[in-house]
C-alpha cells in the first residue's frame, strides 16, 4: 500500500495544473514535517534512554539488510507495472520509507500480545530507522533536487509557492 501511495504522490507532485491545491499540499507537508520532527525527537530520547543497550552485531546486520536489500526489493516489486522513468523508479525503490510507522505497529503489538524478546525487535527497529535517516536521508536530499529541478534546501517545489521569492522564480 505504501508503494502505491508513494508512487501516486511522486507523480502528482509539481504538476503545473494545480491551483489552490498547491497551498493545501504545502500545509499538509508542513504538518507532516512537524509531526515527523516530534516523532524523531521521541525516537532520539528513546534511543538515548537505553533502548540500544545490549545491541548485538546480528541485529545491526539485520537492520542493514532491511535498509539495503529488503526495502529496495519491496519498492521495486511495488512499482512493477508502473510506467515511469528509471531514475524516479530507482529513487522510490531505494529510498523508500524511514520506518517510522514501525514504531506504532511494534507499540500496538507489544500492548496486545506477549513476546519473548520484544527488546530485540525495538533495537532492530531503532537501528533501522536511524540508519535509514543517516544514509537515505542524506542521499535523497542530494539526489532529489537535481532530479526534480529543485534547489538544495527547497521545501516546496511548486513555482510561485508560498516559500518562493521573486529572485528564485526569475532564475
Describe the model.
- This protein is mainly alpha-helical and 171 residues long.
- It has seven helices and no strands.
- The longest helix is centred in the N-terminal third of the chain and has 31 residues, at 21-51.
- The radius of gyration is 18 Å and the shape is globular.
- The chain starts with a helix and ends with a helix.
- Mean pLDDT is 76; it is low at 155-169.
Short description:
By secondary structure, this protein is an all-alpha fold. It has helices at residues 2-12, 21-51, 57-78, 86-95, 100-112, 118-148, 166-170.
Helix/strand/pairing category: mainly alpha
Sequence stretches where pLDDT stays below 50 over 5 or more residues: 155-169
The main β sheet shows up as:
none
- Report how far apart the termini are: 38 Å
- What's the total helix number? 7
The ordered H/E elements are HHHHHHH
Shape: globular
Rg from C-alpha positions?
18 Å
Mean pLDDT: 76
> Hey, roughly how much beta strand do the residues contain?
under 5%
Total strands: the figure is: 0
Features:
171 residues, single chain, disordered C terminus, 72% helix, mainly alpha, 7 helices
Write the layout of secondary structure elements.
Layout: H1 2-12, H2 21-51, H3 57-78, H4 86-95, H5 100-112, H6 118-148, H7 166-170
Helix pairs in contact: 3-4, 3-6, 4-6, 5-6
Amino acid at each position: 500500500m505504501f508503494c502505491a501511495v508513494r508512487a501516486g504522490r511522486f507523480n502528482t507532485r509539481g504538476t503545473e495544473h494545480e491551483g489552490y491545491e498547491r497551498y493545501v499540499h504545502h500545509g499538509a507537508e508542513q504538518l507532516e514535517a512537524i509531526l515527523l520532527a516530534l516523532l524523531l525527537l521521541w525516537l532520539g530520547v528513546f534511543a538515548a534512554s537505553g533502548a540500544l543497550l545490549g545491541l548485538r552485531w546480528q541485529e545491526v546486520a539485520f537492520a542493514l539488510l532491511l535498509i539495503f536489500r529488503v526495502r529496495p526489493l519491496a519498492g521495486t516489486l511495488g512499482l512493477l507495472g508502473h510506467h515511469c522513468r528509471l531514475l524516479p523508479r530507482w529513487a522510490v525503490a531505494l529510498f523508500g520509507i524511514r520506518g517510522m510507522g514501525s514504531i506504532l505497529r511494534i507499540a500496538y503489538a507489544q500492548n496486545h500480545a506477549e513476546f519473548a524478546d520484544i527488546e530485540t525487535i525495538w533495537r532492530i527497529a531503532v537501528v533501522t530507522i536511524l540508519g535509514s535517516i543517516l544514509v537515505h536521508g542524506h542521499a535523497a536530499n542530494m539526489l532529489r533536487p537535481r532530479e526534480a529541478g529543485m534547489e538544495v534546501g527547497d521545501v516546496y517545489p511548486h513555482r510561485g509557492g508560498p516559500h518562493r521569492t521573486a529572485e528564485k522564480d526569475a532564475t
